[in-house]
Design goal:
globular, Rossmann fold, 213 residues, alpha/beta, two-stranded antiparallel sheet, binds zinc ion
Length: 213
């Protein structure tokens, strides 16, 4: 289980926060307050929330989960994520784990986002769909693409499948880093006709330098 020292050191996120992406704000912005990033560019998801700030302590929990073996924290994590997601969880029609990058799926047989989604679904008494979001490897030629286009092409795209039309979907992932993965998930779900797309993660990067996973 989680050591008491670690428990005490974890930083739980909550209000005041950006009502879109959940970024901690210094002052209560009131209903509808958004952070600078969301004011400049509205994300494809309706909201994103995280239970913990992604620091060295939260990183330990995430790595224990990622490296296999440690599923003993899942019941606890799902309780935290249920509290963080609140209304977006209670109104969700189903939960969908963010798909793992295909290069990683090739060497690992599990997806920690799926474990979190399953545990959260159990906690909330909601259905979850393991295959609602998948990574598709693009087979388009790299010829004539810029460096960043190549990276995207190689990285593959996210596709939504199954009956999504008119549904409220809660996407579940382990860490919100730049939000790019959750944006891609939300775009795919919206394209497939989802009415609302929300997201919840175990942890969230709250400082720009905190991106090592
Ligand atoms: Zn924001």
């Amino acid at each position: 289980m989680i050591e008491p020292e670690l428990w005490g050191a974890l930083r739980f996120l909550g209000d005041p926060q950006c009502h879109v992406c959940g970024f901690p704000l210094p002052d209560d912005p009131g209903a509808g307050g958004v952070c600078g990033a969301c004011a400049g560019h509205k994300p494809a998801f309706d909201s994103a929330r995280a239970a913990l700030a992604y620091d060295d302590h939260a990183r330990k929990l995430v790595l224990d989960l990622k490296r296999g073996g440690r599923r003993d924290g899942l019941a606890l994590f799902s309780g935290w994520m249920a509290a963080a997601s609140g209304e977006s969880l209670s109104k969700a029609d189903f939960l969908a784990p963010a798909p793992m990058h295909w290069t990683r799926l090739a060497v690992r047989s599990f997806n920690q986002a799926a474990w979190l989604a399953q545990a959260l679904a159990q906690t909330a008494g909601k259905p979850w769909r393991a295959g609602a979001l998948t990574r598709v490897k693009r087979r388009r030629s790299q010829e004539g693409l810029s460096a960043s286009e190549r990276r995207r092409n190689v990285g593959g795209a996210i596709r939504a499948s199954g009956n999504v039309r008119g549904k409220i979907v809660l996407v579940v992932d382990d860490v919100f880093t730049t939000g790019a993965t959750l944006e891609a998930c939300a775009r795919a779900l919206r394209k497939a006709g989802a009415a609302e797309v929300h997201a919840v993660t175990l942890a969230r990067v709250v400082r720009p330098i905190d991106i090592s996973i």
